[in-house]
Amino acid sequence: MRLEGKVVLVTAATNGIGKAIAHLCGKEGASVYLGARNMEKAKGVIKEFEDEGINVKAVYNDASKKETFVSMIEEVVENEGRIDVLVNNFGGSNPRKDLDIKSTEYEEFINTVDSNLSSVFISSQKAIEYMAKQGGGSIINISSVASTSPDISQIGYGVSKAAINYLTKIIATQSARDNIRCNAVLPGMTATDAVKNNLTPEFRDFFLKHIPIKRMGEPEEIAAAVVYFASDESKYTTGQIMEVSGGFGIPTPVFGDLAESKSKR
């Protein structure tokens, strides 16, 4: 029960990584709020969580309506009197339009950057207002390994996540005096429905060649890192960028080929 007594808000929390984070926070004793655009879907998640004894509610959050990043924080504080942990999990791009520097329309690029970055900035700014008054809190931003390893596509997504890494560090620096910590978790390829449905088996197999731990991550493994940053176990840890990616990007770039080769140096 590492989060007992804490109030936690997780954005984009009705599926995938966000749902896993909300679930584990609840199992660790937190009062959990799901930031959700589809409130009907949120009701199903609430029922599922409540059946396990988790204290959970939903607040409306639509990324296309930036004012909801403020209103969701206000609603949590109105209900609970505080917000201890904010997990900025929302983010994404359209892989059919967010391509390389030659092919991506500027409007698509800037909209992706704006959507992903604004969601973190606006919600964090509002949460900090309340956290400072209550004596502290923890903000955890879900970034991506795409922020540190440039790819051949999704330029807007990569740039926005790299900016979120910097925003994490500057929030940590500027809010430490108010006992507010800010850290980021960078998932690698994770076995969510979105990944399973949008990536071909061929691409997944190719990608996995370059991961020392030869598998995709599980959403629950991302959630475990978030719970660490949400708990008092990390109360002296801030401004950190933690990759949870099975070691992706650490070895030599030819690791995948060498690992499969029987030849020796």
TrEMBL record:
Pfam families documented for this protein: adh_short_C2
One biological process term in Gene Ontology: bile acid metabolic process
CDD domains: SDR_c
Keyword terms: Oxidoreductase
One GO MF term: oxidoreductase activity
Domain of life where this protein originates: Bacteria
Entry EC no(s): 1.1.1.-
Top EC class of this enzyme: oxidoreductase
Family to which the UniProt record says this protein belongs: Belongs to the short-chain dehydrogenases/reductases (SDR) family.
Protein name listed in UniProt: NADP-dependent 7-alpha-hydroxysteroid dehydrogenase
